[in-house]
Here is the input.
Amino acid sequence: MLTRMCNAYHLLLSGLRTVRDEGWRSAWLKGRRYVHSLQWRESIYPEWITENEPSYEELLQQRELSKNFFYSPCISIITPVFNPDPSILTSTIQSVLDQTYENWEFCIVDGNSDNPELKCILHRFSGSDPRFKVRYLHNNQGISGNSNIAISMATGDFILFLDHDDTLAPFALYEIVKALNKNDTLDLLYSDRDLLSEDGTYRFDPLFKPDWSPEMLLSVNYLSHLCVIRRSILNTIGFFDSEMDGAQDWDLFFRITEKTDKISHIPKILYHWRSIKASCATRGHDAKPYIITAQRKAIQKHLERCNQKGDVRLLPQGWGNIQWEITTDKLVSIIIPSKNVSLLKICLDSFFSLTSYSNYEIIVIDTGIDPAIDPAFIEKISNLQNFNMIRYKKPFNYSAVNNTGSQYAKGEIILFLNDDIRVISPDWLSEMVAWAIKDGIGVVGAKLLYPNNTIQHAGVVLGLTGFAGHPFQACADHTMGLFGSTDWYRNYSAVTGACMMVRRAIFDEIGGFDEDFILCGSDVEFCLRVRKKGYRILYTPFAVLEHLESASRGCKIPQEDYLLSMRYYSPIVEKGDPFFNPNLSLWDCTPNLRKPGEKLPIEYIKGVLKNES
Here is the structure.
């Protein structure tokens, strides 16, 4: 009770300081995150850990199973040490000794720590286990220099980085080698992670990651903690760059992923990042202010090596935002199906008054507009030089309407836009164009907000809510939680057709929208065909618009669309959408943990398809 009263007192003081320095809204958001964190610490997350992680008996079984792996590579664990708390360092070392896979070596470099007790600890452990390799330096060479010496000591097939105050899950190496036995060509493996209290008594704030998402790495160093790299790759590209200290691992990951795409995600919590007063896990960039410069430099150097031109900016949280340089002002054909004059007027008025990108044409597909409602507006837009209104007289079919619009499009880039979209930021179209013209990018989607400033669209996950749902839907803008932030670039399986951009050449290559769909699902199915051609689907959080969802046609999904969608979606839902995380519930758009015994949507989908047939 006394502890909770002290915590409440310090929370109140912290809140008052935040109000003074940052305002009431920031204080409220921080307070909400704190309360959420307490709830996780005391109830929800511990229950999930018990339900999902190996028991003591299962860990014993892993020790026996690991002896029968067909492929048993040596894992070299790299830890630079400089003045950690002795008890914390002991905990870090013990987490390695507790591993259920035993073919490892522990390469430790002490950068001339001040505390003589640390040397005693290292000497004690290294004297009792030949797998320890310890080197003591006369001069501290910084995190990169110390780490590089440790890497040069390594003889293992793979390198694993472990900070001197963090811990590994006891089954971490087992899961790594288990994955390598399924695919021994992998060059980089990474896992999910959580935070560990300073005293090591509880775990909290897990981060559940998607599978390999190249564009997300431009926003955040999400590969870090836990990351394992093939040693031969490091020998080829070089080790840490000491000039990048503060973002040395982010820089290293960029250089690795520029050379290989043999990357695998292990969706398990294998790393516990200790939250201490001087740690980035606790204080973010305030703990080490110099890392902001290093992070920006890491991203910038990556762009330069890839011959991409852009100005790297960082959000206050340290997340990347790239202002791409657009060398050619390509014509964008904006296709807007509409039958509602009021919605169309709001959409176009906001577009003309705010949008900064100037080289566009607008093609409105008239699916039943009554010009008598606002004849002055209809006359005004009809006289615009870059405007074309096409009368569509057939029964409404979303796919056919958009395919019809594409036949009149003259631009190299096509943007499909709903009429219930309102422009609220000037650079949204420039942002989308900058991504759409990049090699490898097939479709670009935007962040769409409801009028109350909550998320309507920040990507599409197949199987979410049993169909194809929007993660973070109805969450506050700038949400950060179990699945990361809505302010990160993300790769997805699909984005919504309410605001979808694609190069004309790709649209023609794919064959347009499937007109067997009437109202819903063809945008997702289109993205799936684009992905099959090897292109990536991108969500950018820096193209922001307002969306009054389903105002035009209503929100009921025709049964034919649902059944057709399920046939296309089920192969992906069966395996799990690679850009979501299997530990998260598929029945909740707010990223939350899967509940014990939760029935998966694929089981529901199979039942629907079986009954229909």
